[in-house]
């Protein structure tokens, strides 16, 4: 039988771009690593003499480290995020970047910066929100500006393709649509003799809303596979019911394992603790289990940013998602305050100054440094003891940060009251948010930057554990409705997103899987659970 790796290698030898599209546990990462190892074995000389590198785009540092360690950190392979890669390519084209920024700004309508003049301003990419007036471009700008440059200067694309003749993308489904367009339309189109693009992933494992999901392009040869080497036979049977269009088969060594579904419908207290005690008795231990919680609420109360969350919840369910994505009016402010305090506290004065509103120079005088130190000392004090409103007023009145445009528009909308209902809702939100202790913002930012021991179902792709306990809770987040998945209610807008997340979570289990639902379930959802898990594997917690 021709293996997946053989098919990938055949594509590479014939310069045929491809997409490896296969389910959970099917060995996509392994195939990617084998393809790299093959290229290093047979092409190293040619790559070296041509001053070329293979590029491997990954989404997370964990994935990047994993791939690098498996190819012994060979310098002929460049493992990086799409942003780092693109920036390294376009950063040398400063004049062209300036022109592209000014052009984009001119077309930005009401969001345009007046009199943007970038003459003599070096353009630099940083991890914070854009600050074009100082030449700082953001994450999203890197992709958009690269696409603009590639469009305008086809020769630049040829140079890139000559230097990087093979580009792999791991977990392509979570890559932004604009990145896939850039790779396929701006780079591959017209250069298929020079460049081979290989995408590795699974559209069903898309868990970020911004991801492209399915990619259906005639220029890509599809390489599919149906094996699942990771999960136990019981888990594979479950996955096949969740995803009937892909019937996976076990590899040679998969264990039998087990699946169970438990729902806590009847006001049971501490259902998670109860289940864990029971699982301990069955041999689950701290070392061999993973708890995947899809309940932001319990994480929120543990980490104490309840009031912050409540302010957004009260506004609307979707506001919570905006908060999580830092896409609300205050996201930029919160990120900047925390980044600024952290930069100053750790002595990174350059970053501190660059973040500070209207500041351009360096701290040269001792008196400047003293003043900045006093401001930050005051800010630190307020961050731990004052409210969001008080901290925001402080940074704005001291000129540490500018009030974000979106906050200005929010305040204007409330003041104008053109739409009284909306103004009232906005006002209630703003007052509630201003009253939240700022310390909650600090722990929320820490949570988003994942300095937390908790695990949500996001960010577990590529991982695998002996025993997995998945906890589902529909009550907080409007984004997910697992009840609809169980009841096969495809009319709900959250259906696909919830199904994907459940699929990703369940498919992490190598042996035993336990799903616990802590929010109320309808009869049709319980019937659905019986169909998916098998009637004998479904029970109510109170009756156990
Ligand atoms: N050909 C194979 N033979 C035996 N085991 C394999 C094979 N390919 C992969 N595996 C094992 O199966 C597990 C899953 O592999 P891998 O993580 O590469 O899959 P994946 O498709 O990237 O997974 P997912 O998309 O679910 O994150 C790993 O433990 C890996 O070592």
Topology:
Layout: H1 4-13, E1 18-22, H2 28-49, E2 54-57, H3 61-70, E3 77-80, H4 82-90, H5 94-106, E4 124-125, E5 136-137, H6 139-152, H7 154-163, E6 166-170, H8 177-188, E7 196-201, E8 221-225, E9 227-228, H9 233-242, E10 249-250, E11 258-263, H10 271-281, E12 289-294, H11 296-303, H12 306-315, H13 317-324, H14 331-345, H15 349-355, H16 366-385, H17 388-397, H18 405-416, H19 420-434, H20 438-448, E13 465-472, H21 482-486, H22 495-506, E14 509-517, H23 523-533, E15 538-540
Parallel strand pairs: 1-7, 1-8, 2-3, 2-6, 4-5, 6-7, 9-10, 11-14, 11-15, 12-13, 13-14
Helix pairs in contact: 1-2, 4-6, 5-6, 6-7, 6-8, 12-13, 12-19, 14-15, 18-19
Bound molecules: adenosine-5'-triphosphate.
Residues 22, 24-30, 202, 205, 229-230, 251, 461-462, 464, 507 line the site of adenosine-5'-triphosphate (ATP).
Task: Tell me about this structure.
Keywords: ATP-binding, Helicase, Hydrolase, Nucleotide-binding. ATP binds at residues 22-29. InterPro entries: DNA_helicase_UvrD/REP, P-loop_NTPase, UvrD-like_ATP-bd. This is ATP-dependent DNA helicase UvrD1. By secondary structure, this protein is an alpha/beta fold. It has 23 helices and 15 strands. It has helices at residues 4-13, 28-49, 61-70, 82-90, 94-106, 139-152, 154-163, 177-188, 233-242, 271-281, 296-303, 306-315, 317-324, 331-345, 349-355, 366-385, 388-397, 405-416, 420-434, 438-448, 482-486, 495-506, 523-533, and strands at 18-22, 54-57, 77-80, 124-125, 136-137, 166-170, 196-201, 221-225, 227-228, 249-250, 258-263, 289-294, 465-472, 509-517, 538-540. β2, α3 (61-70) and β3 form a beta-alpha-beta unit. α1 (4-13) runs parallel beside α2, α12 packs across α13 (317-324) and α12 (306-315) runs antiparallel to α19 (420-434). The two termini are 47 Å apart. Adenosine-5'-triphosphate (ATP) binds at residues 22, 24-30, 202, 205, 229-230, 251, 461-462, 464, 507.
